[in-house]
Hints:
The chain is an all-alpha fold. It has helices at 3-26, 33-64. Helix 1 runs antiparallel to helix 2. The longest helix is centred in the last third of the chain and has 32 residues, at 33-64. The radius of gyration is 15 Å and the shape is elongated.
Amino acid sequence: MHHDKITNVLVKQIDDKVLQLQEALSDGRVETLDEYKKVCGEVRGLLTARNYIIDLNKAMENSNE
């Protein structure tokens, strides 16, 4: 599988998970401050990982040129 396809699959999975977490926040399913902090930390971590994956893909594209 080409690294662009791998990147797209990973980014889509992360985006889907972030959306689930955002929906939990907006639907009121996060009831305590501790749960809120956990969900926010998870979103932050996923978005950081997403950026690392995109940066890695760009670096790999540049190294192939």
